[in-house]
Predict the 3D structure of the following.
Amino acid sequence: MVSQFRKTILPTLVILAGLVFAFYITDFVERERPPLPANYEDEDIALEGSQFKGFAFGAEGLLADWYWMNSLQYIGKKISAVGLENLNLEDMRNLNPRLLYPYLNNATDLDPKFIAPYSYGATILPAIDPQQAIALTEKGIANNPDQWRLYQYLGYIYWRLGDYEKASEIYARGSKVPGAQIFMGMMSARMKTEGGSRDMAREMYKQILAEADDERSRQNAELRLLQIDSLDEKDVIAAALADFRDANKRCPTSWSELLPTFQRRPDARRLRIDRSNNIVDPSGFPYVLNRDNCSVELDPETKIPRV
């Protein structure tokens, strides 16, 4: 009995006691651990993709896919954390997505012909770090000089930066790549005269929506197009509000009261009105009439990101 106790029961009791002790220690550490700054919430990538080159036994493509999929999940979690309603497509630095570029760079180190990470980075990185966006896209062009779409994305980045001359030059270079679409040459010419216009922005995002290699880039382009349409609609509504205020010396009490004013404005035909006579934005949510300053605002629940 004593021998059996020493051989089996005692070790079992020691193991169980250790597990219980470990549980309480872990629970105590979790409760007492001080909060970490935002900069430390992401673990650094331990290995660079280039370090696997020549040692992956032909699996470089699979490893590139792994980095690529992780980049999508990574930025998706960042956006989910703040909520789409708080997302600023012009400036996403508040998400602190410091690992996005390393993920994409590793993917393209392992598979330089993998186009999707280049196009994705070109559409997302300009709102985080434009220089990283330029570096990644130029890397893509260097490794894939026959891919005219990469010139399109590089032109887009410079357009975002307001450098319309450089954007025009990039589009012109891309138009000479065999198989390039005719709009590349047209965009090169338009950049010099219409670079900062809303119509040019709409054309840019329509092209990205049609040509994007990944779902996230397409979603970003769709949101941008909704945003541009909303800006146009808000301009029309603001003009109608000004007409009403000038004629009546006050702000309307509801959208219904403003309808006769819309009927006298040809540009108001593009507006959408629901069954309750509310003017709705491109995502289907009613615009909000701010009577304090007689202006139009987006509904807090709208799917359209704020400018």
